[in-house]
Amino acid sequence: MSVLVYIENPKGNFKKAANELIFFGRSVADKMNVECHAVVLGSVSSFDAIQNAGAHKIHHFSDNSFDAFDSQQVAKIVDTAANAVGAKVIVVGHTANGKSILGRVAVRQNAGSVSGVNTMPTLDGGFKIKKGVFSGKATAEFEIKSDVKVLSLMGNSFQASDFDNTAEIVTDSSTNSDSSVTITDLSTVEGTVPLPEAELVVSAGRGMKGPENWGIIDELANELGATTACSRPVADIGWRPHHEHVGQTGVAIRPNLYIAAGISGAIQHLAGVNQSKTIVVINKDPEAPFFKAADYGICADLFDVVPKITEALKKYKANN
Amino acid sequence: MNLLVCISKTPETTAKIGFTDGDSKFNEEGVQFIMNPYDEWYALVRAIELKESVGGKVVAINVGPASNDVVIRKALAIGADEAVRINAEPQSAMTTAKYIADYAKSGDFDIVFLGKETIDYNGSEVGSMVAEYLDLPFFSYVSKLEMDGSKAIVTRDVEGGQETAEYTGAFVLSAAKGLAEQRIPNMRGIMMAKRKPLNVIEPSATEDLSVVVKYELPEAKSGVKMLDADDMDELVRLLHEEAKVI
Ligand SMILES: Cc1cc2nc3c(=O)[nH]c(=O)nc-3n(C[C@H](O)[C@H](O)[C@H](O)COP(=O)(O)OP(=O)(O)OC[C@H]3O[C@@H](n4cnc5c(N)ncnc54)[C@H](O)[C@@H]3O)c2cc1C
To answer: What's residue B103's pLDDT?
Structure first.
Protein backbone atom coordinates (compact mmCIF):
# COMPACT_ATOMS: atom_id res chain seq x y z
CA MET A 1 0.00 0.00 0.00
CA SER A 2 1.08 3.55 -0.57
CA VAL A 3 0.17 7.15 -1.32
CA LEU A 4 0.96 8.23 -4.88
CA VAL A 5 1.53 11.85 -5.88
CA TYR A 6 1.62 13.14 -9.46
CA ILE A 7 4.18 15.93 -9.75
CA GLU A 8 4.23 18.50 -12.54
CA ASN A 9 7.47 19.86 -13.94
CA PRO A 10 6.54 22.63 -16.35
CA LYS A 11 9.35 23.11 -18.88
CA GLY A 12 11.48 20.60 -16.97
CA ASN A 13 11.48 22.45 -13.64
CA PHE A 14 9.80 21.72 -10.33
CA LYS A 15 7.86 24.58 -8.76
CA LYS A 16 7.19 25.20 -5.10
CA ALA A 17 3.88 23.38 -5.56
CA ALA A 18 5.80 20.13 -6.15
CA ASN A 19 7.30 20.25 -2.65
CA GLU A 20 3.94 21.05 -1.11
CA LEU A 21 2.27 18.14 -2.90
CA ILE A 22 4.93 15.67 -1.84
CA PHE A 23 4.84 17.04 1.71
CA PHE A 24 1.07 16.49 1.77
CA GLY A 25 1.37 13.00 0.24
CA ARG A 26 4.04 12.01 2.74
CA SER A 27 2.05 13.38 5.69
CA VAL A 28 -0.99 11.36 4.60
CA ALA A 29 1.23 8.30 4.06
CA ASP A 30 2.70 8.66 7.56
CA LYS A 31 -0.80 8.80 9.02
CA MET A 32 -1.63 5.58 7.18
CA ASN A 33 1.74 3.98 7.93
CA VAL A 34 2.54 3.43 4.27
CA GLU A 35 5.14 4.70 1.79
CA CYS A 36 4.85 7.81 -0.34
CA HIS A 37 5.63 7.47 -4.05
CA ALA A 38 5.78 10.21 -6.67
CA VAL A 39 5.34 10.05 -10.44
CA VAL A 40 7.12 12.48 -12.74
CA LEU A 41 6.79 12.52 -16.54
CA GLY A 42 9.08 13.92 -19.22
CA SER A 43 12.28 15.95 -19.11
CA VAL A 44 13.66 16.97 -15.73
CA SER A 45 16.60 19.33 -15.40
CA SER A 46 17.35 18.27 -11.82
CA PHE A 47 15.68 16.34 -9.02
CA ASP A 48 17.58 18.26 -6.33
CA ALA A 49 14.65 20.46 -5.37
CA ILE A 50 12.31 17.56 -4.55
CA GLN A 51 14.54 14.70 -3.55
CA ASN A 52 14.14 15.43 0.18
CA ALA A 53 10.55 16.63 -0.04
CA GLY A 54 9.25 13.43 1.51
CA ALA A 55 8.77 10.79 -1.19
CA HIS A 56 10.34 7.39 -0.62
CA LYS A 57 10.51 6.70 -4.33
CA ILE A 58 10.17 8.89 -7.41
CA HIS A 59 9.09 7.04 -10.54
CA HIS A 60 10.39 8.99 -13.50
CA PHE A 61 8.97 8.24 -16.94
CA SER A 62 11.68 10.13 -18.69
CA ASP A 63 10.84 9.99 -22.39
CA ASN A 64 10.55 13.51 -23.73
CA SER A 65 7.38 12.63 -25.64
CA PHE A 66 5.74 13.31 -22.25
CA ASP A 67 6.85 16.95 -22.31
CA ALA A 68 3.70 17.73 -24.28
CA PHE A 69 0.83 17.37 -21.82
CA ASP A 70 -2.05 15.09 -22.76
CA SER A 71 -4.41 14.18 -19.92
CA GLN A 72 -5.21 10.82 -21.51
CA GLN A 73 -1.56 9.76 -21.59
CA VAL A 74 -0.75 11.06 -18.11
CA ALA A 75 -3.81 9.41 -16.58
CA LYS A 76 -2.79 6.10 -18.13
CA ILE A 77 0.69 6.30 -16.58
CA VAL A 78 -0.57 7.43 -13.17
CA ASP A 79 -3.18 4.67 -13.21
CA THR A 80 -0.60 2.00 -14.06
CA ALA A 81 1.84 3.33 -11.46
CA ALA A 82 -0.94 3.41 -8.86
CA ASN A 83 -1.69 -0.24 -9.49
CA ALA A 84 1.99 -1.14 -9.37
CA VAL A 85 2.58 0.49 -5.97
CA GLY A 86 -0.84 -0.39 -4.53
CA ALA A 87 -1.82 3.26 -4.10
CA LYS A 88 -4.76 3.84 -1.76
CA VAL A 89 -4.61 7.62 -2.04
CA ILE A 90 -3.65 9.40 -5.27
CA VAL A 91 -2.91 13.13 -5.09
CA VAL A 92 -2.53 15.67 -7.90
CA GLY A 93 -2.21 19.46 -7.79
CA HIS A 94 -5.34 21.58 -8.12
CA THR A 95 -3.91 23.09 -11.32
CA ALA A 96 -5.02 23.20 -14.95
CA ASN A 97 -3.20 19.93 -15.69
CA GLY A 98 -3.80 18.27 -12.32
CA LYS A 99 -7.52 18.88 -12.55
CA SER A 100 -7.65 17.46 -16.05
CA ILE A 101 -6.28 14.12 -14.90
CA LEU A 102 -8.05 13.94 -11.52
CA GLY A 103 -11.36 12.74 -12.95
CA ARG A 104 -9.73 10.42 -15.46
CA VAL A 105 -7.75 8.63 -12.76
CA ALA A 106 -10.82 8.45 -10.50
CA VAL A 107 -12.81 6.77 -13.27
CA ARG A 108 -9.99 4.33 -14.07
CA GLN A 109 -9.58 3.41 -10.40
CA ASN A 110 -13.32 3.49 -9.67
CA ALA A 111 -12.32 5.82 -6.85
CA GLY A 112 -14.21 8.53 -5.02
CA SER A 113 -12.60 11.92 -5.51
CA VAL A 114 -12.54 15.38 -3.96
CA SER A 115 -10.95 18.31 -5.79
CA GLY A 116 -9.31 21.34 -4.22
CA VAL A 117 -8.81 19.90 -0.73
CA ASN A 118 -7.05 22.18 1.75
CA THR A 119 -6.73 20.14 4.97
CA MET A 120 -5.28 16.82 6.04
CA PRO A 121 -7.77 13.96 5.93
CA THR A 122 -9.08 12.37 9.12
CA LEU A 123 -9.04 8.61 9.07
CA ASP A 124 -11.04 7.47 12.09
CA GLY A 125 -14.59 6.55 11.20
CA GLY A 126 -14.04 6.83 7.47
CA PHE A 127 -11.77 8.88 5.21
CA LYS A 128 -12.93 12.49 5.56
CA ILE A 129 -11.43 15.62 4.06
CA LYS A 130 -12.39 19.29 3.60
CA LYS A 131 -12.45 21.76 0.73
CA GLY A 132 -13.82 25.25 0.09
CA VAL A 133 -17.19 25.37 -1.66
CA PHE A 134 -19.54 28.10 -2.86
CA SER A 135 -16.51 30.03 -4.06
CA GLY A 136 -14.89 30.13 -0.66
CA LYS A 137 -18.05 31.15 1.17
CA ALA A 138 -18.22 27.81 3.00
CA THR A 139 -16.29 24.62 3.69
CA ALA A 140 -17.58 21.13 2.99
CA GLU A 141 -16.36 17.97 4.59
CA PHE A 142 -16.51 14.99 2.23
CA GLU A 143 -16.40 11.35 3.06
CA ILE A 144 -14.84 9.07 0.44
CA LYS A 145 -16.17 5.54 0.70
CA SER A 146 -14.17 3.72 -1.96
CA ASP A 147 -11.01 1.74 -1.31
CA VAL A 148 -8.91 4.10 -3.44
CA LYS A 149 -9.25 7.88 -3.04
CA VAL A 150 -8.24 10.58 -5.51
CA LEU A 151 -7.59 14.17 -4.37
CA SER A 152 -6.38 17.43 -5.85
CA LEU A 153 -4.61 19.72 -3.41
CA MET A 154 -5.33 23.46 -3.42
CA GLY A 155 -2.05 25.39 -3.65
CA ASN A 156 -0.71 27.17 -0.55
CA SER A 157 -2.62 24.96 1.87
CA PHE A 158 0.48 23.66 3.65
CA GLN A 159 3.92 24.97 4.46
CA ALA A 160 6.21 22.27 3.07
CA SER A 161 9.37 21.24 4.88
CA ASP A 162 11.93 18.61 3.97
CA PHE A 163 12.14 15.11 5.41
CA ASP A 164 15.40 13.40 6.33
CA ASN A 165 15.18 10.64 3.73
CA THR A 166 16.36 11.07 0.15
CA ALA A 167 14.00 9.69 -2.46
CA GLU A 168 15.21 6.84 -4.62
CA ILE A 169 14.73 7.69 -8.29
CA VAL A 170 13.48 4.88 -10.48
CA THR A 171 13.77 5.74 -14.16
CA ASP A 172 11.67 4.26 -16.95
CA SER A 173 12.99 5.47 -20.29
CA SER A 174 11.23 2.97 -22.51
CA THR A 175 7.59 3.97 -22.02
CA ASN A 176 6.51 6.79 -24.30
CA SER A 177 3.46 8.85 -25.01
CA ASP A 178 1.36 7.91 -28.03
CA SER A 179 -0.61 11.13 -27.96
CA SER A 180 -2.35 12.34 -31.08
CA VAL A 181 -2.72 15.84 -29.65
CA THR A 182 -0.14 18.29 -31.00
CA ILE A 183 0.91 21.10 -28.67
CA THR A 184 1.88 24.01 -30.90
CA ASP A 185 2.57 26.65 -28.26
CA LEU A 186 3.05 27.04 -24.53
CA SER A 187 3.61 30.58 -23.39
CA THR A 188 3.77 31.33 -19.70
CA VAL A 189 5.19 34.29 -17.82
CA GLU A 190 8.70 33.59 -16.63
CA GLY A 191 10.38 34.78 -13.49
CA THR A 192 7.28 35.29 -11.36
CA VAL A 193 5.45 32.83 -9.15
CA PRO A 194 2.17 31.87 -10.83
CA LEU A 195 -0.88 33.25 -9.01
CA PRO A 196 -2.29 30.00 -7.57
CA GLU A 197 1.07 29.30 -5.91
CA ALA A 198 1.87 32.83 -4.78
CA GLU A 199 2.17 33.50 -1.05
CA LEU A 200 2.08 37.25 -1.54
CA VAL A 201 -0.24 38.99 -3.99
CA VAL A 202 -0.72 42.67 -4.85
CA SER A 203 -3.94 43.28 -6.73
CA ALA A 204 -5.55 46.37 -8.23
CA GLY A 205 -8.85 47.32 -9.79
CA ARG A 206 -10.72 50.03 -11.61
CA GLY A 207 -9.60 52.58 -9.05
CA MET A 208 -6.28 52.64 -10.95
CA LYS A 209 -7.94 54.78 -13.65
CA GLY A 210 -5.84 53.34 -16.50
CA PRO A 211 -3.22 50.76 -17.43
CA GLU A 212 -0.48 53.42 -17.57
CA ASN A 213 -0.71 53.80 -13.78
CA TRP A 214 0.29 50.23 -12.90
CA GLY A 215 3.92 51.19 -12.25
CA ILE A 216 3.24 51.76 -8.53
CA ILE A 217 1.61 48.33 -8.25
CA ASP A 218 4.56 46.64 -9.98
CA GLU A 219 7.00 48.47 -7.72
CA LEU A 220 5.18 47.36 -4.58
CA ALA A 221 4.96 43.79 -5.90
CA ASN A 222 8.68 43.79 -6.76
CA GLU A 223 9.63 45.09 -3.35
CA LEU A 224 7.55 42.37 -1.68
CA GLY A 225 8.42 39.62 -4.15
CA ALA A 226 4.70 39.34 -4.78
CA THR A 227 2.68 38.28 -7.82
CA THR A 228 0.23 40.79 -9.33
CA ALA A 229 -3.49 40.21 -9.78
CA CYS A 230 -6.49 42.30 -10.81
CA SER A 231 -10.27 42.56 -10.70
CA ARG A 232 -12.39 41.34 -13.57
CA PRO A 233 -13.37 44.64 -15.25
CA VAL A 234 -9.70 45.54 -15.47
CA ALA A 235 -8.93 42.32 -17.35
CA ASP A 236 -12.08 42.68 -19.46
CA ILE A 237 -11.09 46.10 -20.78
CA GLY A 238 -7.58 44.85 -21.43
CA TRP A 239 -5.71 46.93 -18.86
CA ARG A 240 -4.18 43.73 -17.50
CA PRO A 241 -3.64 40.23 -18.90
CA HIS A 242 -6.48 37.80 -18.50
CA HIS A 243 -4.48 35.32 -16.36
CA GLU A 244 -4.27 37.95 -13.57
CA HIS A 245 -8.06 38.09 -13.11
CA VAL A 246 -9.06 36.73 -9.70
CA GLY A 247 -12.55 36.07 -8.40
CA GLN A 248 -15.51 33.89 -9.01
CA THR A 249 -15.01 33.83 -12.77
CA GLY A 250 -11.23 34.10 -12.59
CA VAL A 251 -8.57 32.35 -10.57
CA ALA A 252 -9.33 31.46 -6.94
CA ILE A 253 -6.31 31.99 -4.70
CA ARG A 254 -5.36 31.66 -1.04
CA PRO A 255 -2.14 33.58 -0.49
CA ASN A 256 -0.79 34.50 2.93
CA LEU A 257 -1.12 38.18 2.05
CA TYR A 258 -3.54 39.82 -0.40
CA ILE A 259 -3.19 43.57 -0.86
CA ALA A 260 -6.08 45.12 -2.81
CA ALA A 261 -5.84 48.68 -4.13
CA GLY A 262 -8.80 50.39 -5.79
CA ILE A 263 -11.00 47.31 -5.73
CA SER A 264 -14.50 47.73 -4.31
CA GLY A 265 -14.77 44.16 -2.99
CA ALA A 266 -17.85 42.95 -4.86
CA ILE A 267 -19.05 39.55 -3.71
CA GLN A 268 -17.83 37.92 -6.95
CA HIS A 269 -14.36 39.36 -6.41
CA LEU A 270 -14.28 38.23 -2.77
CA ALA A 271 -15.24 34.74 -3.88
CA GLY A 272 -11.78 34.29 -5.36
CA VAL A 273 -9.73 35.82 -2.56
CA ASN A 274 -11.63 35.33 0.70
CA GLN A 275 -9.48 32.36 1.69
CA SER A 276 -6.40 34.60 1.85
CA LYS A 277 -4.85 34.55 5.31
CA THR A 278 -4.37 38.32 5.63
CA ILE A 279 -6.14 40.94 3.53
CA VAL A 280 -5.08 44.60 3.28
CA VAL A 281 -7.50 46.96 1.55
CA ILE A 282 -6.69 50.40 0.20
CA ASN A 283 -9.76 52.31 -0.90
CA LYS A 284 -10.76 55.97 -0.74
CA ASP A 285 -14.41 55.14 -0.12
CA PRO A 286 -15.03 54.35 3.57
CA GLU A 287 -18.18 52.47 2.52
CA ALA A 288 -16.33 50.11 0.16
CA PRO A 289 -17.58 46.58 0.94
CA PHE A 290 -14.04 45.21 0.84
CA PHE A 291 -13.26 46.74 4.25
CA LYS A 292 -15.67 44.25 5.85
CA ALA A 293 -13.55 41.37 4.58
CA ALA A 294 -10.21 43.00 5.40
CA ASP A 295 -7.79 42.57 8.28
CA TYR A 296 -6.13 45.94 7.74
CA GLY A 297 -7.74 48.87 5.98
CA ILE A 298 -6.39 52.16 4.74
CA CYS A 299 -9.03 54.64 3.69
CA ALA A 300 -7.13 56.98 1.38
CA ASP A 301 -6.07 57.70 -2.18
CA LEU A 302 -4.16 54.70 -3.49
CA PHE A 303 -1.87 56.91 -5.58
CA ASP A 304 -0.57 58.32 -2.28
CA VAL A 305 -0.64 55.18 -0.19
CA VAL A 306 0.81 52.50 -2.48
CA PRO A 307 4.18 54.27 -2.98
CA LYS A 308 4.31 54.90 0.77
CA ILE A 309 3.97 51.18 1.49
CA THR A 310 6.79 50.49 -0.98
CA GLU A 311 8.94 53.07 0.82
CA ALA A 312 8.10 51.65 4.24
CA LEU A 313 9.07 48.17 3.02
CA LYS A 314 12.40 49.46 1.69
CA LYS A 315 13.10 51.10 5.01
CA TYR A 316 12.11 47.96 6.89
CA LYS A 317 14.37 45.81 4.72
CA ALA A 318 17.30 48.19 5.16
CA ASN A 319 16.93 47.99 8.94
CA ASN A 320 16.52 44.24 9.22
CA MET B 1 -21.18 19.18 -36.20
CA ASN B 2 -22.97 17.37 -33.41
CA LEU B 3 -22.35 19.28 -30.23
CA LEU B 4 -23.31 18.32 -26.69
CA VAL B 5 -23.30 21.00 -23.98
CA CYS B 6 -23.51 20.05 -20.31
CA ILE B 7 -25.34 22.64 -18.25
CA SER B 8 -25.84 22.75 -14.53
CA LYS B 9 -27.96 24.77 -12.15
CA THR B 10 -26.23 26.77 -9.42
CA PRO B 11 -27.20 29.35 -6.82
CA GLU B 12 -27.00 32.89 -8.15
CA THR B 13 -23.60 34.53 -7.49
CA THR B 14 -24.76 36.80 -4.65
CA ALA B 15 -26.94 34.14 -2.95
CA LYS B 16 -26.74 33.90 0.81
CA ILE B 17 -25.09 30.62 1.67
CA GLY B 18 -26.59 28.64 4.56
CA PHE B 19 -27.24 25.05 5.56
CA THR B 20 -29.96 22.86 7.13
CA ASP B 21 -30.39 19.34 8.49
CA GLY B 22 -27.53 19.60 10.97
CA ASP B 23 -25.38 21.45 8.41
CA SER B 24 -25.51 18.52 6.03
CA LYS B 25 -27.60 20.14 3.28
CA PHE B 26 -27.50 23.42 1.37
CA ASN B 27 -30.44 25.59 2.40
CA GLU B 28 -32.27 26.39 -0.84
CA GLU B 29 -34.88 28.55 0.82
CA GLY B 30 -35.08 31.96 -0.78
CA VAL B 31 -32.14 31.18 -3.05
CA GLN B 32 -32.44 32.08 -6.69
CA PHE B 33 -30.92 29.58 -9.10
CA ILE B 34 -29.27 30.29 -12.42
CA MET B 35 -27.52 28.38 -15.18
CA ASN B 36 -23.89 27.96 -14.15
CA PRO B 37 -22.22 31.02 -15.73
CA TYR B 38 -19.37 29.11 -17.44
CA ASP B 39 -21.85 26.73 -19.01
CA GLU B 40 -24.13 29.49 -20.20
CA TRP B 41 -21.80 32.27 -21.26
CA TYR B 42 -18.96 30.30 -22.74
CA ALA B 43 -19.70 26.61 -23.39
CA LEU B 44 -23.22 26.98 -24.73
CA VAL B 45 -22.62 30.13 -26.76
CA ARG B 46 -19.46 28.79 -28.44
CA ALA B 47 -21.30 25.61 -29.38
CA ILE B 48 -24.13 27.64 -30.89
CA GLU B 49 -21.65 29.81 -32.80
CA LEU B 50 -19.97 26.73 -34.25
CA LYS B 51 -23.29 25.29 -35.32
CA GLU B 52 -24.19 28.61 -36.93
CA SER B 53 -20.97 28.61 -38.93
CA VAL B 54 -20.64 24.95 -39.96
CA GLY B 55 -24.12 23.51 -39.45
CA GLY B 56 -25.21 20.63 -37.25
CA LYS B 57 -27.05 20.67 -33.95
CA VAL B 58 -26.55 21.62 -30.32
CA VAL B 59 -27.98 19.38 -27.61
CA ALA B 60 -28.03 20.67 -24.02
CA ILE B 61 -27.88 18.06 -21.28
CA ASN B 62 -28.58 18.42 -17.57
CA VAL B 63 -28.58 15.93 -14.75
CA GLY B 64 -31.25 17.01 -12.29
CA PRO B 65 -34.85 17.04 -11.11
CA ALA B 66 -37.84 18.49 -12.99
CA SER B 67 -37.36 21.84 -11.26
CA ASN B 68 -34.27 22.29 -13.45
CA ASP B 69 -36.44 22.60 -16.55
CA VAL B 70 -36.48 26.42 -16.28
CA VAL B 71 -32.72 26.50 -16.65
CA ILE B 72 -32.85 23.99 -19.49
CA ARG B 73 -35.48 26.06 -21.31
CA LYS B 74 -33.16 29.03 -21.04
CA ALA B 75 -30.46 27.07 -22.86
CA LEU B 76 -33.01 26.33 -25.59
CA ALA B 77 -33.98 30.01 -25.68
CA ILE B 78 -30.35 31.02 -26.13
CA GLY B 79 -30.12 28.68 -29.10
CA ALA B 80 -29.69 24.98 -28.28
CA ASP B 81 -31.78 22.84 -30.63
CA GLU B 82 -32.89 20.22 -28.19
CA ALA B 83 -32.34 19.21 -24.59
CA VAL B 84 -32.06 16.14 -22.45
CA ARG B 85 -32.57 15.88 -18.71
CA ILE B 86 -31.34 12.84 -16.85
CA ASN B 87 -33.85 12.59 -14.05
CA ALA B 88 -31.55 12.24 -11.03
CA GLU B 89 -30.43 14.47 -8.17
CA PRO B 90 -26.72 14.95 -8.92
CA GLN B 91 -24.90 13.70 -5.83
CA SER B 92 -21.33 13.28 -6.97
CA ALA B 93 -19.20 14.29 -9.94
CA MET B 94 -18.64 10.68 -10.93
CA THR B 95 -22.30 9.67 -11.20
CA THR B 96 -23.11 12.91 -13.03
CA ALA B 97 -20.29 12.21 -15.49
CA LYS B 98 -21.41 8.61 -15.94
CA TYR B 99 -24.96 9.70 -16.87
CA ILE B 100 -23.67 12.28 -19.32
CA ALA B 101 -21.20 9.86 -20.89
CA ASP B 102 -23.85 7.14 -21.24
CA TYR B 103 -26.03 9.58 -23.14
CA ALA B 104 -23.11 10.92 -25.21
CA LYS B 105 -22.24 7.41 -26.37
CA SER B 106 -25.64 7.14 -28.00
CA GLY B 107 -25.24 10.35 -29.96
CA ASP B 108 -22.05 10.46 -32.05
CA PHE B 109 -20.98 13.88 -30.78
CA ASP B 110 -17.98 15.73 -32.21
CA ILE B 111 -17.40 17.91 -29.17
CA VAL B 112 -18.74 17.70 -25.62
CA PHE B 113 -18.67 21.11 -23.92
CA LEU B 114 -18.77 21.85 -20.17
CA GLY B 115 -18.06 24.93 -18.08
CA LYS B 116 -14.67 24.92 -16.33
CA GLU B 117 -16.37 24.37 -12.97
CA THR B 118 -19.68 25.00 -11.24
CA ILE B 119 -19.73 28.00 -8.95
CA ASP B 120 -21.23 26.00 -6.05
CA TYR B 121 -18.98 22.96 -5.60
CA ASN B 122 -16.07 24.37 -7.62
CA GLY B 123 -15.23 20.80 -8.51
CA SER B 124 -13.90 20.91 -12.05
CA GLU B 125 -14.13 17.11 -12.05
CA VAL B 126 -16.98 16.17 -14.38
CA GLY B 127 -15.21 17.10 -17.63
CA SER B 128 -12.22 14.86 -17.23
CA MET B 129 -14.48 12.05 -16.01
CA VAL B 130 -16.74 12.31 -19.07
CA ALA B 131 -13.63 12.30 -21.26
CA GLU B 132 -12.34 9.17 -19.57
CA TYR B 133 -15.66 7.34 -19.85
CA LEU B 134 -15.71 8.23 -23.55
CA ASP B 135 -11.99 7.54 -24.00
CA LEU B 136 -11.50 10.95 -25.66
CA PRO B 137 -8.93 13.74 -25.24
CA PHE B 138 -9.87 16.48 -22.78
CA PHE B 139 -8.92 20.13 -22.97
CA SER B 140 -9.56 22.04 -19.75
CA TYR B 141 -10.00 25.81 -19.31
CA VAL B 142 -10.40 26.50 -23.01
CA SER B 143 -10.49 30.22 -23.78
CA LYS B 144 -10.35 29.89 -27.57
CA LEU B 145 -11.58 27.27 -30.02
CA GLU B 146 -11.27 27.54 -33.80
CA MET B 147 -12.00 24.92 -36.45
CA ASP B 148 -9.74 24.58 -39.48
CA GLY B 149 -11.69 22.08 -41.53
CA SER B 150 -11.84 18.99 -39.36
CA LYS B 151 -8.90 20.13 -37.20
CA ALA B 152 -9.65 21.90 -33.90
CA ILE B 153 -7.24 24.55 -32.64
CA VAL B 154 -7.68 24.86 -28.90
CA THR B 155 -6.14 27.41 -26.55
CA ARG B 156 -6.35 26.62 -22.86
CA ASP B 157 -5.46 28.66 -19.79
CA VAL B 158 -2.64 27.25 -17.72
CA GLU B 159 -1.01 28.82 -14.65
CA GLY B 160 0.49 32.13 -15.73
CA GLY B 161 -0.23 31.72 -19.43
CA GLN B 162 -1.75 29.71 -22.24
CA GLU B 163 -1.19 26.52 -24.19
CA THR B 164 -2.35 25.90 -27.75
CA ALA B 165 -3.01 22.44 -29.15
CA GLU B 166 -4.30 20.95 -32.39
CA TYR B 167 -6.39 17.84 -32.67
CA THR B 168 -8.49 16.09 -35.28
CA GLY B 169 -11.28 13.94 -33.92
CA ALA B 170 -13.91 14.03 -31.20
CA PHE B 171 -12.99 15.54 -27.81
CA VAL B 172 -14.27 17.02 -24.56
CA LEU B 173 -13.56 20.58 -23.45
CA SER B 174 -14.23 22.75 -20.42
CA ALA B 175 -14.93 26.39 -21.17
CA ALA B 176 -13.31 29.41 -19.54
CA LYS B 177 -13.77 33.11 -19.99
CA GLY B 178 -12.91 34.33 -23.45
CA LEU B 179 -14.33 31.37 -25.34
CA ALA B 180 -17.46 33.33 -26.28
CA GLU B 181 -19.54 36.35 -25.31
CA GLN B 182 -22.69 35.98 -23.23
CA ARG B 183 -25.94 36.01 -25.27
CA ILE B 184 -29.19 37.29 -23.83
CA PRO B 185 -32.16 35.25 -25.07
CA ASN B 186 -34.57 37.34 -27.17
CA MET B 187 -38.37 37.10 -27.32
CA ARG B 188 -38.32 34.91 -30.41
CA GLY B 189 -35.83 32.52 -28.77
CA ILE B 190 -37.97 32.30 -25.65
CA MET B 191 -41.09 31.54 -27.71
CA MET B 192 -39.30 28.94 -29.80
CA ALA B 193 -37.80 27.28 -26.73
CA LYS B 194 -41.27 26.21 -25.64
CA ARG B 195 -41.64 24.06 -28.76
CA LYS B 196 -38.16 22.52 -28.77
CA PRO B 197 -37.85 18.94 -27.50
CA LEU B 198 -36.80 18.35 -23.89
CA ASN B 199 -36.44 14.62 -23.38
CA VAL B 200 -36.37 13.16 -19.91
CA ILE B 201 -34.33 10.02 -19.39
CA GLU B 202 -34.44 7.85 -16.27
CA PRO B 203 -30.95 7.11 -14.93
CA SER B 204 -29.38 3.74 -14.42
CA ALA B 205 -28.52 2.88 -10.83
CA THR B 206 -25.13 4.13 -9.59
CA GLU B 207 -23.40 4.51 -6.29
CA ASP B 208 -21.87 7.72 -4.94
CA LEU B 209 -18.33 7.11 -3.75
CA SER B 210 -17.76 10.58 -2.38
CA VAL B 211 -20.42 12.55 -0.50
CA VAL B 212 -20.61 15.71 1.60
CA VAL B 213 -21.16 14.91 5.26
CA LYS B 214 -21.00 18.39 6.75
CA TYR B 215 -20.80 22.05 5.79
CA GLU B 216 -19.26 24.89 7.77
CA LEU B 217 -19.36 28.63 7.38
CA PRO B 218 -16.05 30.44 7.90
CA GLU B 219 -15.44 32.18 11.21
CA ALA B 220 -16.33 35.83 10.98
CA LYS B 221 -13.33 38.13 10.60
CA SER B 222 -12.56 39.80 13.89
CA GLY B 223 -13.04 43.18 12.26
CA VAL B 224 -10.84 45.41 10.20
CA LYS B 225 -8.09 47.44 11.80
CA MET B 226 -8.07 50.86 10.14
CA LEU B 227 -4.62 52.41 9.78
CA ASP B 228 -3.39 55.96 9.36
CA ALA B 229 -2.46 56.52 5.71
CA ASP B 230 0.53 58.61 6.76
CA ASP B 231 2.08 55.82 8.79
CA MET B 232 2.75 52.87 6.50
CA ASP B 233 5.66 51.81 8.71
CA GLU B 234 2.92 50.69 11.06
CA LEU B 235 1.37 48.50 8.33
CA VAL B 236 4.72 46.88 7.62
CA ARG B 237 5.24 46.30 11.35
CA LEU B 238 1.79 44.69 11.71
CA LEU B 239 2.29 42.48 8.66
CA HIS B 240 5.56 41.32 10.14
CA GLU B 241 4.80 41.06 13.85
CA GLU B 242 1.05 40.49 14.09
CA ALA B 243 0.00 38.78 10.84
CA LYS B 244 3.47 37.25 10.37
CA VAL B 245 3.13 37.19 6.61
CA ILE B 246 6.31 39.07 5.69
C1 LIG C 1 -21.58 36.58 -12.47
C2 LIG C 1 -20.52 37.60 -12.16
C3 LIG C 1 -19.21 37.16 -11.99
C4 LIG C 1 -18.19 38.06 -11.67
N5 LIG C 1 -16.92 37.59 -11.47
C6 LIG C 1 -15.96 38.45 -11.05
C7 LIG C 1 -14.64 37.99 -10.77
O8 LIG C 1 -14.31 36.81 -10.93
N9 LIG C 1 -13.72 38.88 -10.32
C10 LIG C 1 -14.01 40.20 -10.15
O11 LIG C 1 -13.12 40.97 -9.73
N12 LIG C 1 -15.24 40.67 -10.45
C13 LIG C 1 -16.22 39.84 -10.89
N14 LIG C 1 -17.45 40.33 -11.19
C15 LIG C 1 -17.64 41.79 -11.19
C16 LIG C 1 -17.88 42.36 -9.81
O17 LIG C 1 -19.26 42.29 -9.51
C18 LIG C 1 -17.42 43.82 -9.74
O19 LIG C 1 -18.10 44.54 -10.74
C20 LIG C 1 -15.92 44.01 -9.94
O21 LIG C 1 -15.19 43.16 -9.06
C22 LIG C 1 -15.56 45.44 -9.65
O23 LIG C 1 -14.21 45.66 -9.97
P24 LIG C 1 -13.40 46.82 -9.26
O25 LIG C 1 -13.50 46.66 -7.80
O26 LIG C 1 -12.05 46.87 -9.88
O27 LIG C 1 -14.15 48.14 -9.78
P28 LIG C 1 -15.20 49.09 -9.03
O29 LIG C 1 -16.32 48.35 -8.46
O30 LIG C 1 -15.47 50.18 -10.00
O31 LIG C 1 -14.38 49.62 -7.81
C32 LIG C 1 -13.31 50.51 -7.89
C33 LIG C 1 -12.96 50.88 -6.46
O34 LIG C 1 -11.81 51.70 -6.47
C35 LIG C 1 -11.96 52.73 -5.50
N36 LIG C 1 -11.12 53.83 -5.93
C37 LIG C 1 -11.27 54.62 -7.02
N38 LIG C 1 -10.26 55.51 -7.09
C39 LIG C 1 -9.47 55.30 -6.02
C40 LIG C 1 -8.29 55.91 -5.52
N41 LIG C 1 -7.69 56.92 -6.17
N42 LIG C 1 -7.76 55.45 -4.38
C43 LIG C 1 -8.36 54.42 -3.70
N44 LIG C 1 -9.46 53.80 -4.14
C45 LIG C 1 -10.02 54.24 -5.27
C46 LIG C 1 -13.44 53.03 -5.49
O47 LIG C 1 -13.82 53.57 -4.25
C48 LIG C 1 -14.05 51.64 -5.73
O49 LIG C 1 -14.32 50.99 -4.51
C50 LIG C 1 -18.48 39.45 -11.54
C51 LIG C 1 -19.81 39.89 -11.73
C52 LIG C 1 -20.80 38.98 -12.04
C53 LIG C 1 -22.20 39.50 -12.21
So the answer is: 97
ipTM confidence: 0.94
| A116-143: pLDDT as tens digits | 999 999 999 999 999 999 988 899 999 9
Dihedral sign of CA atoms A40, A75, B171, B36 in order: negative
The residues lining ligand 1, judged by C-beta closer than 6 Å to any ligand atom, are A 205-207, 231-234, 247-250, 262-264, 266, 268-269, 272, 282-285, 288, 301-303; B 13, 37
Q: What is the least distance, in Å, from the CA of B126 to any CA of chain A? A: 7
Q: Which residues pair with A141 in a beta bridge?
A: A130, B214
Check the CA dihedral A157-A160-A166-A172 and report its sign.
positive
Question: Is the separation of the CB atoms in B22 and B38 below 8 Å?
Answer: no
Asked if residue A141 lies in contact with residue B212, where contact means CB atoms within 8 angstroms, the answer is yes
Cα–Cα distance, A280 to A282 (Å, whole number): 7
pLDDT in tens, A75-98: 999 999 999 999 999 999 999 999
- Write down the pTM of the prediction: 0.92
CA pseudo-torsion sign A266, A271, A276, A277? positive
